[in-house]
Amino acid sequence: MSTDLFLFAHPDDDVFVAGTMSMLVKAGHTVHAAWLTSGDARGDPAMREAELCKAMRIVGVAESGIHLLRLPNRGLLGILPTAADKVAKIVVQLNPERIFTTAYEGGHIDHDALNFLTRMAYQQTGSRAGLYEFPLYNRSGPFYFWWWRINTFYPCMEEVVYSRLTETAVRIKHLAMREYASQWKDMLPFRLVLNKKRMLQTGEPYRQLPPDRDYTVPPHAGKLNYEGWSTSPTGTTFIDFRKAVADFCSEGNPRP
Question: Which end of the chain has fewer CB atoms < 10 Å from its terminal CB, N or C?
Fold first, then answer.
């Protein structure tokens, strides 16, 4: 059976694709998941790691399939070379047939950084795996959803695949959400939007990560969610992201 690798920036990012993960496990795939950070900006890192381990037990991922890299939360942009090396090592170690990573969508700066890192590690290792991204949240939605899109891609030309979920997979997805008790303020609206009816109708979306993506261009024309956060005295802007990408490539690393 094939090996699938899921890459996450933080504990709880996995809930957006937990149904798909559970169905792959049930189908006999070997599923691995790696978290680049422990999400310590919003809770004790040990507690958050314990929550993700409980969530993965529900999903069916074996303990040997859990990989914790423990890089700085909200700090991936500042350590792109180090983070790319760590992602590359995971890819080489596991040699997966498919890789799933967080979408480039302007939701959280770590999510966008991980998307870039995955592309770089993919090229660095010469991986031949199928490379996919899945959406979490962004602010490109309609006004009647307060401009949010949750677990939905913004309109694009790329083909979107929907992983059709069984009732059992939907239940597992919701049970995994419950394990992230420290993040209940996020889990509550996510659970309401990603309800059983919607999940059975649409499933979980993902798409091929475009090989020619231009990371010097914002992911969409709307407001980027992370630009409204005060993660530093000056905040984080897309200009910061673009500069970090340019610096990474100027150091002799492969260009996307």
Answer: N
Write the DSSP symbol of residue 182. Answer: G
Residue extents of the structural domains in the chain = 3-250
pTM beyond 0.70, yes or no: yes
Which 3 state secondary structure label does DSSP give 149?
strand
Question: What tens digit of pLDDT does each residue of 21-52 get?
Answer: 999 999 999 999 999 999 987 779 999 999 99
Of the candidates 27, 33, 2, the one whose C-alpha atom is nearest the C-alpha of residue 15 is 33
**Residues contacting 100, CB < 8 A, separation 6+:** 4, 5, 6, 7, 17, 20, 132, 133, 134, 206
- Looking at every residue in the chain, the average pLDDT score rounds to 92
Fold annotation for 3-250: Rossmann fold (3.40.50)
CA distance 98 to 121: 14
